[in-house]
Model the fold of this input.
Amino acid sequence: MESPHKGKTGLKRLWNAFHYSLAGFKAAYQNEDAFRQESLLAAVLIPLALFLPAGAVGKALMIASVLLVLIVELLNSAVEATVDRISLENHHLAKRAKDIGSAAVLLSLVNLTVVWALVLFG
Done:
């Protein structure tokens, strides 16, 4: 069964997609502790990147690395919600999916640290 909104095109589709995205941000913020923590981190680091003595490319890399953490966390949260929707029972594939999502978040945080260190000290 497909979504009844799937056939929409043009501005109506864009308007609907925008509102679905806002609903996604709201759901992540309300239901995911990690997303709230990483949002706070972004609220501090993005303005900081703009004020630190780095070139335009360095600033762009610093901000992109912060945004990447949020993107990966959103995807991880979506995977976790989907796995939990399918079944709450312990299953090795459910654990694998959640662990891989968590590993992706960790890797994005390592990337953030490396990018900031290279831009600031490298």
